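Protocol step 4 of 6: structure prediction from sequence.
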Amino acid sequence: MGGTALAGGPDTGLARDFNGLPDHVLIKRVQDGFETSALDRLLDKLEIGTLDIAGLDGAYCVARTAEAALNRGYGVTLVEAAILRADSAAYEKAIAPLITRGLIRA
């Protein structure tokens, strides 16, 4: 996907099994989920210190959001069974430096 998925586009919503479950929904418009202050504010309000991250494109959105979370001091686990890897080599390259910073693969 090359980081080009758009909100409301094909296959960008929650899987049917998760509809109605989230308490909070934030729409991100760029690769890094922390680009706006909305996610920072929500996590602070909820007193969240660790994140389990899943998503559409591991080499782009997932890696960028994981990096931004690590930069902010969050503990980060990638839920690999729930991450699309359109290009596995690019995914591995993107997350390799994050592993040395404490990123966990699960």
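Step 5 (inspection) to follow. The chain has three helices and three strands.
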